[in-house]
Amino acid sequence: MDLKLTGKVAVVTGGSLGIGRAIAAELAAEGVDVVIAARDAARLEAVAAEISAETGRRVVAAAGDMTNPADIARVMEAARQAFGPIDILVNNAGASPMGRIADTADAVWEKSINLKLMGYVRSARDVLPAMRARRWGRIINVIGRSGHQPRAAYMTGGAVNAALLNFTLALAEECAPDNVLVTGVNPGPVQTDRWNTLIAQGAAIAGQGADQTNKAAIASVPLGRVGLPDEVSGMVAFLCSDRASFITGTCINIDGGGTRCI
């Protein structure tokens, strides 16, 4: 399927690892000019070179901390300097640790909110005026199913994700008259370094081995397996295209059927 994305410009935050890297590679393979952002400049440059070699597209690395408003502004400006107006924003930078309320300090809450919730808000705020003026834009928020499946052992992440579900739908309503489409994707268990970290943290909280925790997580997925990053990135690429031009204000679960709520 030709998604007709050649020549579009995208910024993917958290683009050096896992799902973010897969999204950046998928978009580049579709002909998109991609800027990837993350904190580790050396790793970011290496990944940009790898994706460029894989896809034949120029991929630009723009190092920045998405908790820092000045860094967000600098990343977006680097994208505009490299390729021109930004057509697509994929908000993906953000991670909250496992933890129950007594074990989660205020600093952890503040960091999670500032990185994922406010990082997404600030990035969207930066790109929206030009998207609305051109009457074309896509904002895809990578959120997570914990936003509507609360768990005591993942309280911070669930609360931030719930806020992002609300933000995504509200922003979609505001931007729809200008043909700027805003959607979310909620990955379930996906095999990444981040997943391995969550399994280790969950095992420590439960007082059991990582293998046991991983098996329990897989058992909760009707398809009976953990997903792969490119099973998320394909959906994101589709949502960026005009094939999805009547989809906005919704969040799509990519979780092997594991989220069972109305």
Automatic annotation (TrEMBL):
Domain of life, per lineage: Bacteria
UniProt protein name: SDR family oxidoreductase
InterPro entries reported for this sequence: NAD(P)-bd_dom_sf, SDR, SDR_fam
Pfam families assigned to the protein according to its UniProt record, in alphabetical order: adh_short
Family of the protein in this entry: Belongs to the short-chain dehydrogenases/reductases (SDR) family.
Annotated transmembrane regions: none
Database matches in PANTHER family: 3-OXOACYL-(ACYL-CARRIER-PROTEIN) REDUCTASE, NADPH-DEPENDENT REDUCTASE BACG
